[in-house]
Specification:
elongated; Beta-Lactamase; alpha+beta; 6 domains; five-stranded antiparallel β-sheet; 736 residues
């Protein structure tokens, strides 16, 4: 066993191969020898028994007649079997009557017949068989055989076995040597490489691959393992180097505390932080003595708590530096414990946080000042995080909305913003936040009393210490008064614009009138005057008088046109004097005047009661006189004239109307009704200048109302107009 424990693999493999070969050969040879011995012996015995039986049958006649000569001849036939050494025939009394002995054989037969059966004695085998015929026995045949050939055969077999074993052993030895070169050599190479790696820790060693079998796969796996170990070593070295450089760059102190020996190992930076010389032997007592007196109990308690629990050690403390401003340090560590839970070692880092603490104190001071100013500011001040969720509101904001900080926090403040304004706020502010840009936006915010107030909000982006976007700081200012002034100004501008448009229309109409309507009477005056001169020269005074009469009428028409121009200009320039106006009473007065001027006309005048409005009494009278006067004129050809002044309520408000059953008008020409000097009927049908409805339209427009007409030829007309409840008093725009 000691040999196999310490012998090389090659010798073990050789010995194992030889032992296995010899054992296999011997086992096979013994099995075959035993089989051969018993098979050969059995075959020989069976042949001798068969030969004895045949000879016994052939000897029956010789024994029956006691013929000795025939008996000898029968026994002599056994000479053909080399194994038979002697034979004898015995009669029924057991007396020998004939025998046979091979020449040179030393064997002899007994004088009396032996019992039937096989008897072996040494190298001789006696076979006694009965000689009989039917049921009668005549005697006994004894055949004595020499079975020494069996031993000779076994000896020869053993010699062959020995020779075969020797030859097989030699072949096995040769095969073992060949196998050793193919199997042991790669294994030996692996052992040599492993020993080299163990001795030199050189993981670049590689084993050459011999075959593509299991040993080849083992070689590849071994080489791959070395490559991975080499890569891991390189990565570990680079990681350790990066860690060292990071520690040095970050100016982090490291410490390793052996609690069993109470020894603490510090790196150079840790010594600098605690202001101790490099290489100083440090223990827990020295460390605690360097901690500020006020912080020492707290640090000691934190160390003891971490040593007896699973928590890490983490604490901030001041250093003991009486001659300098306070220095702050942060220590963090992990305790390593035994299987029983006893602390054995602690490792960790120390960081000088003096600058950070100073910055934090300055930030706190700045924050305090900011809040003091913000809480007293008249503007609504707020701040939000990068996700635009607001985290601060000053008192002015809370007083304005009448809500608490909890209600306004995050997106709660948006509950006071109308949905349309909030959608626009999200769109504009979201786009600004994506670009980290400042923004300004106007929206409505609900005040504590429920009123919606216009606010202008400005937001300035905040930047964190690392340069990242930290949200917005902003303010809101109530601009409702400004928005109302702007709305009023815009309304005033619209009014002025409408007045200018009306003035431009008047200017255009005036120009057209000057070029058309006024020239007609002038041409008539000129023409009739020339004709009158000629007729006077021709001494025809009657004709001259007629022509001069026409001149006078033309001059009168021109005067009326000029008066109409003046009236229209006065209406355009007139200032509104708003007061309560009783339109029903005014209509009654107008109808009374028309009846007194035309006593022979029968007109059914219907005036609704209690028609009141707010407006300029003088201008509304002019408008109503023109509307009722037109209805009076255009119903002059009706036998049963009917004029109605009333009002009706519609979705757009109260609408006044003047309705008649007079001549009416073509609806296709309705757009010309309110244009100055435009007439839909000829002067021969109904006299007029075409300025009445234009004047009405101007009066209604100055009151910020609207006028329109409906009608049909021969079926009368209805003129509708609206008047606002509170028209604004405004100055006129003078037409050029």
């Amino acid at each position: 066993m000691n040999f196999f424990q310490h012998a090389p693999l090659r010798q073990k493999l050789t010995a194992l191969t030889m032992v296995c070969s010899v054992v296999a050969l011997l086992t096979t040879a013994v099995a075959l020898g035993v089989y051969e011995f018993f098979f050969y012996q059995r075959t020989m015995f069976q042949q001798l028994e068969t030969l004895s039986s045949i000879t016994a049958r052939n000897s029956g006649a010789a024994l029956a007649f006691a013929n000795t000569e025939d008996a000898r001849r029968v026994l002599a036939a056994l000479d053909a079997e080399p194994a038979v050494a002697a034979a004898a025939l015995y009669d029924a009394t057991g007396a020998k009557i004939a025998d046979y002995r091979r020449r040179g054989a030393a064997s002899s037969t007994p004088p009396q017949a032996p019992p039937d059966g096989l008897v072996r004695a040494g190298t001789e085998l006696d076979i006694a068989v009965p000689v009989s015929e039917a049921t009668k026995r005549f005697g006994t045949l004894l055949v004595r055989a020499d079975v020494s050939a069996i031993g000779q055969r076994v000896a020869a077999y053993i010699m062959v076995l020995i020779g075969t074993t020797l030859v097989s052993g030699m072949l096995a030895l040769l095969l073992t040597g060949w196998l050793s070169n193919r199997i042991v050599a790669p294994v030996q190479a692996l052992v040599t490489a492993a020993t080299g790696v163990k001795t030199t820790t050189d993981y670049s060693i590689r084993v050459p691959k011999a075959e593509d079998d299991e040993l080849g796969a083992l070689t590849d796996a071994f080489n791959e393992m070395l490559a991975r170990i080499q890569q891991n070593e390189a990565d570990l070295y680079r990681s350790a180097e990066r860690f060292r450089l990071a520690i040095e760059a970050a100016k982090i102190g490291t410490w390793d505390w052996n609690l069993v020996r109470n020894e603490i190992e510090w790196n150079d930076r840790n010594c600098e932080i605690f202001c101790v010389p490099l290489g100083t032997r440090v223990n827990s007592e020295l460390f605690l003595s360097l901690v500020h007196d006020d912080d020492r109990p707290r640090v000691k308690a934190a160390i003891e708590s971490a040593a007896h629990s699973t928590a890490d050690f983490s604490i901030e403390f001041r250093l003991q530096r009486p001659e300098r401003p306070p220095h702050y340090a942060f220590a963090r560590g992990l305790f390593l414990k035994s299987s029983a839970g006893d602390p054995l070692r602690a490792v960790g880092v120390t960081i000088d946080i003096t600058e950070r603490r100073g910055a934090e104190l300055r930030i706190i001071e700045s924050e305090t000042r900011f809040r003091a100013v913000a809480e007293r500011a008249p503007a609504l001040i707020w701040s939000c995080e990068p996700a635009l969720k607001r985290d601060y509101f000053n008192k002015t904001w809370l007083n304005f909305t009448g809500r608490t900080v909890e209600q306004e926090h995050g997106t709660g403040w948006q509950a006071g913003v109308p949905e349309a304004d909030l959608y626009r706020w999200k769109e504009i502010v979201g786009a600004a936040a994506a670009q980290r840009d400042p923004y300004s936006i106007e929206y409505r915010l609900r005040r504590a009393d429920g009123a919606l107030r216009w606010m202008v909000e400005t937001g300035s982006p905040r930047t964190a210490a690392d340069g990242s976007f930290a949200g917005y700081l902003g303010s809101c200012i109530d601009i409702t008064a400004r928005k109302e002034n702007e709305a009023e100004l815009e309304a005033h501008v619209r009014t002025r614009t409408r007045e200018l448009e009306v003035a431009n229309q008047e200017l255009e109409t005036f120009s057209y009138s000057v070029s058309h309507d006024l020239r007609g009477p002038v041409r008539a005056i000129q023409g009739f005057a020339e004709i009158a001169i000629e007729e006077c020269q021709a001494k025809n005074p009657e004709a001259a008088i007629e022509r001069l009469t026409r001149v006078v009428k033309a001059a009168e028409r021109m005067n009326k046109l000029i008066d109409a121009f003046i009236s229209m200009a006065r209406i355009s320039r007139a200032e509104l004097k708003i007061e309560e106006v009783d339109l029903s009473r005014m209509a009654d007065e107008i109808f009374g005047f028309l009846r007194s001027a035309n006593p022979d006309r029968r007109v059914e005048a219907i005036v609704a009661r209690d028609l009141r409005c707010r407006g300029d009494d003088r201008l509304l009278r002019i408008a109503l006189e023109n509307l009722i006067g037109n209805a009076w004129k255009f119903t002059s050809k009706q036998e049963a004239a009917r004029i109605e002044f009333a009002a009706e309520n519609r979705p757009e408000g109260r609408v006044f109307y003047v309705r008649d059953n007079g001549a009416g008008f073509d609806c296709a020409l309705a757009h010309k009704l309110f244009q100055a000097f435009e007439r839909l009927h000829h002067n021969s049908q109904f006299e007029g200048l075409g300025v009445g409805l234009s004047t009405v339209q101007r009066v209604i427009a100055k009151h910020e109302g609207r006028i329109w007409a409906e009608g049909a030829e021969g079926r009368g007309a209805t003129f509708y107009f609206t008047l606002p409840d509170r028209p604004r008093a405004s100055s006129s725009v003078k037409a050029a």
